[in-house]
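Cross-posted from the bioinformatics board.
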Amino acid sequence: MQFPTTGKPSLGVIYDSSLGSNADEALTLALLYGLDGKNDCRVIAISTTRDSLRGAQLCDVIGRFLAGSISGFFGNISRALPIGMSVEGKLQEDTPIIKQVLARPEFKSPIAHLNDTAEVTPLLRNALTAQEDKNAAVVLNGPATNLAALLALPGAIDWIKSKVRHLAVAMPEAAVAIDPTAARKLFAEWPTPIFVADSAVGDALRYPGASIEKDFAWATPAHPVVDAYKAAGTMPYDAPAPGMAAALQAVHPDKGYFTLSDPGTFTIDDSGKLRFKPSAEGRHRAILPNDAKREEVLALYTQMASAKPVQRTFRRRSEAQQEQQQKKNTPAPKPESK
Amino acid sequence: MITRKALNRRTFLRGAGAAVALPFLDAMAPAFASSTVKSPVRMGFVYVPNGIDMKNWTPSQDGALGELPRILKPLDPFKKDITVLSNLTHNNGRALLDGAGDHGRCCGAYLTGVQPRKSAVDIKAGISCDQIVANKIGGQTRFPSLEVGLEDARQAGDCDSGYSCAYTNNLAWRSETQPLPPILDPRAMFERLFGKGANLSPEERAVQSKFRRSILDFVTDDTKKLQSNLGPTDRRKLDEYLSSIREIERQIEKAEKDNAQIDPKMDKPYGVPADFAEHFKLMSDMITVAFQADLTRVLTFLVTREGTSRAYREIGISDGHHPLTHHMNKQDLIEKVTQINTYHVTQFAGWIEKLKSIKEGDRSLLDNCMLVYGAGLSDGNRHTHEDLPTLIAGNGGGFIKSGRRVTYRRETPMSNLFLTMMDRMGVEVDHFGDASGRLRGLDLA
C-alpha cells in the first residue's frame, strides 16, 4: 500500500537512451517506472538520441503506458512527460522494435511534428533544476550525444554537480561507435561519480525470457515492453541487460546489488573501446556482478519491469499536520465583553 | 551634379526650457541616398498579467496567419505585421523548490531569464535584456530606455506569497538588485521626454498651468526656420509630428481637468486618466513620439502589474482580473477573462495602427520595431510557465519574417528569443538567462 509522502521526495531520475535499439533499453525504462511505483525513485525526464519522430513516439508510448495513462489505469490522470529528442542526425532509421510497437492501434502517440517533442538540453536542465540538491541521478543507456550536449550549456558543470548524485552508464560498443566524440567528452568532463555497466554485467545478469511470457500477462491486449522484447530477438532468449544494472545501481547504490570496481577512469580508446584505468583519485567505477545477490537482482528485475502502473500520490501534509495548520490559521476567539 | 547638405539626425527644435527632437525626415539623408540610410531598430516589451486564455489566443495552425482567434482578432488588419510564437518556456518562473508565488516569480524572471530570489525585502533577479541593450547602445539616444506602466508602481512589501512587489511591479532590472520602476503619470513622462518640471507638485503645477503654453510655443522660431528649409513631404511629416505632440498635451490637460472634476480627494498619481483605454493611448502615443524622434530605442511597458486584481468596469467586468483567472474551468468566468485579454489586445492594436501609419524611410515605424506582446504565465488558472503567449509586432527592420505563427519545440527557453532580439539590436552577448542558444526560424533566412 502506498502512503502519501511528506518528507524529501525520492531520487529524481533522468533516462536518456536510444530506445528502439535493443530489449534492454525498454526493460530499463520499465524497471525505473517499477521502482518509481514503489516510491524508490521518480522518473523526471525521458530523452532519446534517435533523430526520428518515430523514435520519440516509441519513448512516448512506452513511457505513458508505464506511467499508467494509456494502460487504462488512471484515465487522464497521467504523468506524461515531454520527450526530449536529439536532432543531431543520428539513428534516423526505423528498427524492428519501433515498427512492432507502433504498429498496434492502441499504442498511438500524440507526437506528430517536431515541435511536439522537446529540446533535449533545456528539458534535461529544467528537470534537474527542479530537484533538491544531490537528489537526482542520470541513467544513460546508449550513445552519449545528449549528455555531451547538456555539458555544453553555460554553467552546466556547476548545476550538474549540485543536483546530480551520480551518473550510471550502459554504453555498448555499438553505442560508442555512434558518437565516440560525445562519449569521450562525457567521461572526461562529467563532474559527478560515474558507474559503468558493460557487457560483463549485462551478460551475467540477463533478463529471463520466460518472464516475458508470464509476468506481463495482466496487460491486455498488449504490453509495449513485451512487443519490444519479442521484436528484438527470436524467442525464447534471455536479453543482455547492462542498462537494468546501471539503473538499479543508480537508484540503490548502497544496497550492494552489484560489486563495484576500485575507483578509476574510463576512457574511449582509438578503436572505440571502453578502457578502465584504476586510480585512487578517479570518479568512475565499473558495475560488476555480485554472485551472492544474483537471484535477488533477477527477481527485482522481473518484478519491477512487469509491475502494473502505480498512481503516484501527491505529496501532502498528513491529516494531523493539516489540522495543526488549520488551528494556526484560525484566529483565537475574542474574549466576550462584559 | 546634385548635392544637398543633410539635416543632422540629432537636430532639436529648441526654446526656453524646451527641446523637441525631430522625427526621421528625408532631409536627414543625403540626396539620392535615402535607401542607404538605415533607420534604427527599436525593441520593446509589452507585458500583460495573469496569463491569457490560450484557447482563444493560439492560432489553429503554423505558417501564414489565417483567421485569427478571438483575442487576437483586433490585430486582424495587421496580421502581416505580427508573428505569433508558441511553446516558449520560462523555466525560471516555475517553482523550482520555492513553493507558491508564481506571479512574483514569472514577472521577475520574464526579462531577466533568472529565478528571482524569494524574498519580500532582500530582492535579487538579474539584469534584464532591455537593460543589457540599453547599457550598450543607450548612449546613441537621449534616453537609454523607457519604462512605462499603467498601474501600481509600489516597490516595497510582499505582493505574492513572500515575493516582493518589486518583482510584480517592474519589468526592467538595471542590476540584480535594482529594478527600474515604470512611469505611470503621463505628465511626468511628457516632461521627461520634452522638458523640465517633472518634479513639480500638483499645486505648483496648477499655478504654473495658468501661464502654461504648449511646449511647441517655445520652439516656434526654430520650427519656422526649419520649415522654410524643408521640402513639401518633410513639411507635412513635421506638421503631423508636431500635431501629435500637441494632441498628447491636450489629452494630458484633459485628464488632469477630468480628475480634478471627478474626485479631487482621490489618492492617485496626478494626471493619470481614469479611463484605462485613454491612459494606454496617451502613454503609447508618447512612446510613439519617442520612437519617432529616436529619443530611445528600448522600451518596457507593464500594462498592469502581475497578479493585479484590477476590475474592468469600462467593459462591464466588476470582478478582479486575478480572481477571475482562477476560474476553475467555469465558463462564465473564462468568458470574462477572454474579454479582458481581448480588451488589452484592442488597445495594443490601436497603437500598432499608429506605428504603422508613420513612414520612416522606405518602411513604416512599425516595420522598424520588434514589440513583444506577452505574459509570464500561459494558463492563469493553473499557473503554467510553458507555451507562454507571445507575439512580436513589427519585423525589426526587415529581419523577422512576419505574418506567421511559429511553434517551437517544447521547453524552448523564452531567453532564446531575447538573445536573438539582442543580436538584432547589435548587442551580441554569449549568454543570457537560461538561454540554450539562438531562436531559429524567426528570420527571413
